[in-house]
Structure formats: C-alpha cells, structure tokens
Amino acid sequence: MKSFNIFFGLLISISTSIFAQRFKVIPLGVKGGLDESNLSAYMVAPINSNNYICLDAGTLYYGINQAVKNGLFAKPAEQVLRENIKGYLISHAHLDHVAGLLMNAPADSHKTIYSSPFVINAFKNKYFSWTNWANFADEGEKPQLGTYNYQTLTYNKEIALKNTDLFVTTFELSHGNPYKSLAFLVRYKHNYILYLGDTGADRIENSDDLKKLWIAIAPLIKSKQLKGLFIETSFPNSQPDTKLFGHLTPKLFFKEMEELSHYTGKSALENFNIVVTHRKPHANNEWIIRQELEKNNMLKLNLIFPKQAGLLKF
C-alpha cells in the first residue's frame, strides 16, 4: 500500500506539473492597425513574477493604464512602464509594433531592445535619429541618451532575457517576401509560449519559414510544454491573396494548423491554446474573422480572442 501511495502521489505530481499555469500575459494592445490606442503589445512574465518582457510595443502607456484601472497593477502606469517591463522583444519595425516604445521612450527606464539586425538598424537610422525623434539608445547618432541598449538576436539560439527568469529562442518569418518578421519562443523553466509577429502563409510567401517553425515546436506541443501560441489573423477570407501584404486569413491560418498537425498529430492540438492576434478592425472585419475561425475549427483548437488589459494565464 505504501508503494502504491508513493506511485499515486508521483502521478499527481507529474499531472500537476504538466497542467499547472506557468505564464501570465497582459495584452496592452491586440489589434492590427487603425486604433492607435490598441496596437500589438503583450507583457509576459512567469506566473509568480512581476518582471515582464514585452512582446512588441505598438501600444504601451494606454494599455498599461487600462490594466491599472482593471486592478492588475496597484501603482501608476508610468511606474509600471519603468519598473515592471524589463525589455522589449520586437518582431519587426512596422509602426503598429513599435509606436508605443518610441512615444514612451522619454519616460522609460534603462533596458534592452532585442531584435534582428534589420530592426535594430531601423531604430538606429530611422526612428532614434535626431531628425525624427531623439536618440534614446546608446548607439547611433550623437548625442546618445542611453535609455536603451540593443541586443541582436541569432536565429535558433536561446538567450537569457535580462532581469527576468525568461529565456527566448528566435525564428525567422516571412512578412511580405522579401520582408521579414520574427517569432519568439519564450521559456520559463521547462515551459514555453510562442509569439509570432506578422507572418504570411508559406504558400503565399513562397517560403518554408512556418514549416521550419512547426517542426521545431511540435515536440513541445506533444509533451504539453508549449502552453500557448500567439498568431495573427489579420484579414477575413474575402481578402484577395494579392492584397495580404504578408498576413493570414482564417483559411490560411487553418492550412498552417493542418501543416502543424502533420508533426504533432491532430489529437495533440485538441484544446491547444491559440491566441488570435492582429485582427484588423476595418469595417466589421474583427467579427467576421472570429466567425470564420470559430465556424471552421475542425481541429478543436482552444481559440482565444484577447482583450486589451485583460489577464491570460497559461
């Protein structure tokens, strides 16, 4: 009986470890344009920590202030910006993913911007140039105000994120070939979440970037270590392929999920957390995109449509 109790306790411990919530995510902005107060930005931290990394930074202060109003922080938004966001992982340099960082730089504290060489060069030569804005970084045009330092990411190589308990591995995406974006596989201990910046489908982009990503993460889905996947669906199915500009529709989203299922098995994707990001709010598109996704969800994915200043736990 004693050995049975030990075995039973071990099973409970393993089950608890697999299904326990490991991450908390606060969406500061969830849309793909038009509404400048609600653009792509997601604060991520281990469930028991208040040291966050920000995945993209289209909207910062407004989203943080809404989170304060919702009771997620007990201090002013500017203080959250300075003290709780420890760095920025930037998928690409489009303004709907960086505008909040630029506008809030005068009030921010010293921290790191992590991205590709192309994005860092855009900050150096386009944004933090004294023609367009002050240079709040420690590289580029002088005078350098030194609020931010840059760290160049290497594809498929994991690095620690400073002043957090998080690590990140970076993957390349195609965002309107030949333009690129990034995906971030964020790790806390033995658990992960995956955030994709803007991306087109492999078929449209004449690329295999998503295929490579699906192959890389499939073992983490099968082992239940990957707690959630953040992926865009910008346009409804009525959008012509020639007018996608490196984005997904529900139809293309499901084609990519079918591709992913080839490496995971379909059963592994049932109830798997998919956070749908970057829905463009033009006309009634947001609602149409949601309807098209929910209606055709044959893989039984757990589709999550995030709200600004809500709280997601994985």
Give an account of the 3D structure.
The chain has helices spanning 2-19, 61-69, 77-83, 95-104, 117-127, 202-205, 209-222, 250-264, 266-269, 285-295; strands at residues 23-29, 41-46, 52-55, 85-89, 111-115, 148-152, 158-160, 167-174, 180-188, 191-196, 226-232, 273-277, 302-304, 312-313. The protein is an alpha/beta fold. The strands form two sheets. The chain has a seven-stranded mixed β-sheet. A seven-stranded mixed β-sheet has the order 7-8-9-10-11-12-13, covered by helices on one side. A hairpin with a 5-residue loop joins β2 and β3. α2 (61-69) packs across α3 (77-83) and α7 (209-222) crosses α8 (250-264). 45% of the residues are buried.
Concise structural overview:
With 314 residues, this protein is an alpha/beta fold. Helices cover 33% and strands 24% of the residues.
Q: What labels would you give this structure?
A:
single chain; 314 residues; alpha/beta; Metallo-beta-lactamase, Chain A; seven-stranded mixed beta sheet; 24% strand
